[in-house]
Each structure stands twice: as structure tokens, then as C-alpha cells.
Amino acid sequence: MPELVVTALLAPSRLTLKLLRAFMWSLVFSAALVAAAVYGCIALTHVLSRPRRGCCGRPRRTPPACLSDPTLGEHCFLTLRSSGLRLHYVSAGRGNGPLMLFLHGFPENWFSWRYQLREFQSRFHVVAVDLRGYGSSDAPRDVDCYTIDLLMADIQDVILGLGYSKCILVAHDWGALLAWNFSIYYPSLVERMAVVSAAPMSVYQDYSLCHMGQFFRSNYMFLFQLPWLPEKLLSMSDFQILKTTLTHHKRGIPHLTPNELEAFLYGFSQPGGLTGPLNYYRNLFRTFPLEPQELATPTLLLWGEKDPYFEQGLVAAISSRFVPGRLEAHILPGVGHWIPQSNPEEMHQYMWAFLQDLLD
Fold first, then answer.
1. How far apart are CA 187 and CA 297, in angstroms?
2. Active site residue 337
3. pTM above 0.90, yes or no
4. Which is catalytic among the residues 130, 206, 337, 350?
5. Is the distance from CB of 196 to CB of 103 less than 8 angstroms?
6. Which of 46, 70, 86, 175 lies in disulfide reach of 237, CB 3.0 to 4.6 Å?
């Protein structure tokens, strides 16, 4: 068929897609402005109630002692083949079994996996990375350096760079979103997955369009689409919004000690420490709309019944995309979003049972 005819036939579809994306971006930035007003009021309230802290975050000069706890593993760096960036990771149990690779969420770092590093190093080579932009890993400032494709290439480079041909991928929140995508596009590199508190991007998109309550739960995502303002708001009153997120008595991490809180804040308090992590969110809507994708990697899914950020209905939506028999899903009663830190014993029990046949 002549190229001119093909172009003419596709023109209506392309125009419709452009109009849909333009409409989507208008909604996103409208929601971003509303979210900015709300979070601006919250940040200002924190400043007025704690005037001595001022309007900026206090840079932490010394990392807290818990970040160098020798029982968690050895601190290493890996230069990525695709990008040349250096990623920081903590490793333990090399030679004890298959690679178990941990991917953290926001606002966290490798330290969020401290319980799992201790638990599984006897039978696995456990590796918890600081994703690009976080902690001691390289942090390019350009938004285009944080596309999903580049972040998936990082995971591939870590697995191959550590000398493995496949891994058991354990992921939470943003790390889980990357893990879902990685299992679709690099299935040969993932033997099993344990996913906590996150849905594949296409599932989240379709579910949110039918359940407006999920949009309200994810209101912070719209704020993070804006340049520079989110960094300013999150750092005001010495990072009080982040502190509240991590320590809130209902929505935060139970029993998080001041030293452990500082383990997360230390990286964000460094110059430009928030820009890399927020650039993940600034790339979220660039691929809209997404096509439904079939999920086939054997996966353990753990979800908190009281998760304040993601509705429980997403679990059924995820299950509907799976090849039968490949998903084992558990909803933990009374549990929130931060399962690896709030309920490590329950998570470990499910993981050992899920992985038992690999160890026999």
C-alpha cells in the first residue's frame, strides 16, 4: 500500500491520540496546581508552628550510624554498562545462593530492606541498591534521565554486572512499579518476584480511570509534576512533610526510631537530594495511554488492607492480568503501606514459603 495512503488512514487515529494526550496533560496540570495549593498550606503551617526550623531543610553532614551497620552487608559501587552511572548497593551472602535483588520506593533508600537483608543472606546473595538519584548513587538532574526505559536498563546492568543471568526480584512502591515493567520486558532475567504495595502502570491507569478515589489517594503524584516547587515544599521546616509521611501514627512506619528516620532523610538533605527521586514522578504520564499487558512471571504479591495510598481493589485488577497459576496474592489485615518495615516477620514467612522449591 502506498505510504501516502497509509499516512492518510492513520491520520485520524494520530489526531485522536494527540487530543487525548493534550486533554490528559491539561487535567494533570490542573490537579498539580490544586495539589500545590494544598501542600503549600500544609508546609506553611509546619513553618509557622515550628519557626526555629525555618523555611529550608537542614543539611545532614554525617550519616547516621545505622547506615553503616556491618550486619546488613558490605557497601559497594557498580558502574553501569549502559549509562556509565555508578550505583551504590549493600551486599551480603555472596556464594550462599541465587541473587535476591531489592528495589526500594519513595521516600526511602536501600536501608528500607534492613530486615530482609538480615533474614535472607543465609540462603541467598542479597543485594539492596540505591536506585539512580538516591543516596550515594549518581544523580543526574535532567528529567529525561529518569525514564522507565533507562531505569529498567539500570536493573539489567545490575543483574549482569554482578555476574548473574537471572534473579529473584523483591520490590516495594516505586521499586515495585519498575519490577513489574522489568518482568514484562526482560522476563529471562527474573526467576521469581515478590512485589509489595504497587501495581503495574497499565493496571493503575485503567483502575484509576474507573475509581476516582484512587486519584485522591495519589494526589501527591500531581504535585510532583511541577518543577522546583515540590523540592521546596518537601524541604520546608526541616523536611517535616517527609517526616510526617514516614512517622505518622496511622499512615507511617510503626516504631521507626529517630536514627532510622535520619537514615532516610540524610540523602534527601544533600544538595539536589530530592530532585532525582521526584524526577521519577515527572516521567509517569509521558507514556499515557498504556496498552494492557499480560503478566506471566511467578509472583508473590503482598498488600496492606489499610494502605492509605493504594486501594485494595487494585489486587483484583492485577490478578485479572495474570496467566492463571502465576500469582500468589495476600492482603494483610490491618496493615498499611510499609510492609517490609512494619510487618517483616509476616513478609518473611510468605517469601520463604513462596521460594521453598528453589531451595530444595
1. 7
2. yes
3. yes
4. 337
5. no
6. 46
pLDDT, tens only, 293-340:
999 999 999 999 999 999 999 999 999 999 999 999 999 999 999 999
Is 146 marked active-site? no
The single residue of 266, 281, 309, 350 carrying the catalytic annotation is 281
User: Which sequence spans correspond to the domains of the chain?
Assistant: 19-359
The CA-atom distances, in angstroms, between 144 and each of 74, 157, 230, 279 are 31, 19, 18, 8
Distance CA 198, CA 329 (A): 12
What SS3 state is found at 1?
coil
Residue 170: its H or E element: strand 167-172
List the beta bridge partners of residue 299.
193, 327
Are the beta carbons of 134 and 277 closer than 8 angstroms?
A: yes
Evaluate the omega torsion of the peptide bond into residue 289 and state whether it is cis, within 30 degrees of 0.
yes
173 labelled catalytic: yes
Topology (CATH) of 19-359: Rossmann fold (3.40.50)
